[in-house]
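Tutorial handout. Part one gives the primary structure; part two gives the three-dimensional structure as C-alpha cells.
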Amino acid sequence: MLFSEDIGIDLGTTHTRVCVRGKGTVITEPTVAAVDLTSNDSSVTEIGEKARDMIGRTPGSLNAVSPIKNGVIADYAVTVQLLRKLIDRSISASAFKRTRVMITIPSGTTEVERMAVRMAARDAGARYVSLVESTLADALGENLPIDRPFGTMVADIGGGCTQVAVLALDDIVTSAGVRVGGDDLNAAIIEYVRRNFDLLIGERTAESIKMKIGSAIPYDGEGAVDVRGRSLTDGLPRNIELTSAQVREAMAPVTASIIDMIRSVTKKTPPELLSDIMSKGIFLTGGTSSLRGLARAIQAVTKIPVVVSGDPLSSAVLGLEACLERADR
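Part two.
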C-alpha cells in the first residue's frame, strides 16, 4: 500500500533528521525546543537551531529544553509539539491524513518507552506509526549485507546513548545499550573544570573543547585551548588553559564505559558470527564515533578492526529511507 508522503524520523538526543520517501533527507536540526513559560500549555515557539541558540541566553519567559534524554522521551508534551512542527515542515497538509511515520528507537528500549514514542507521534498527527531500532537503520543506511547469514556488528555512539548490535538475516542476534554518549563527555568536562579550577562553564563551551582537543587516546600535535567561565570563588569572569591530556582525563570514565559495553557484546556473540565480525570489522556510526582516537581505542580492547562511517550522522536516516522503500514492495 502506497501512502501520500511517508516520512522517517531519526529522533536523536542531540539532533533529529527527517526524510521523505522519494525526496531524501529534508530536515536536520538540533533536538531542542524553546518553550513559552507564560502560556498555560507551555507552547513551543521555536525548534532546532534557533532554539539551540537560546540555550543559556533566554529571558524568564522562555526556556530552551532538550525533550529527549539518553535516547528516550523526557518531556512528552514538548516532544509532541516538536514532532508536529517537524511533520508540518516535511509534508503538505493535504497528505497528512495518509502519512506513515517511521521513527528510530534505541536498542533495549522498554515497551513503556516504545509506547510513549508511538503515542507522541500519533498525538502529533501521524496516522500510521512504526518503530525501527537505530542499529538496524544504521546498517541499512551503510548498505551492510545484513540480509545474509553472516554476522555484522554496528555500534551507534550518539549524544545520549550508545547502542551495539550484531545482525544477521535482517534481524538482531544480540544487542546491548548504555545510556552514555557525547552529552556525558560534555558533562564530564564541565565537572572536571569545576572540580579542578573552581570555574563554571556551559554545555556549548564544553562541546567546543571536546571538538577542538578532545580524544580517547594520546595523539600527535596535542595542544591546549583558552577557556572562559565564571569563577566559583568570587563570581567574576576568569580564563584558564586546558590541555588535551586534561580533557582526555576528564572524559576517560565515559569513553571506558562505551568501550566496555562494546566488548561485552562481543563476549555474547556466537562464535561463528564473531568470526565474520573479526574479518569485516565493527562499524561505528553516530556523532560521537568521530571522537579523535575512539576507533583505535575500541580496536585495541576488542582486537577487532574498526570502521568509522564516512557520514556517521546520516546512517540512521538513510536507513529509514531504505525501510520506507522496502515497506512498499
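Part three, for discussion. The radius of gyration is 21 Å. The mean pLDDT is 91.
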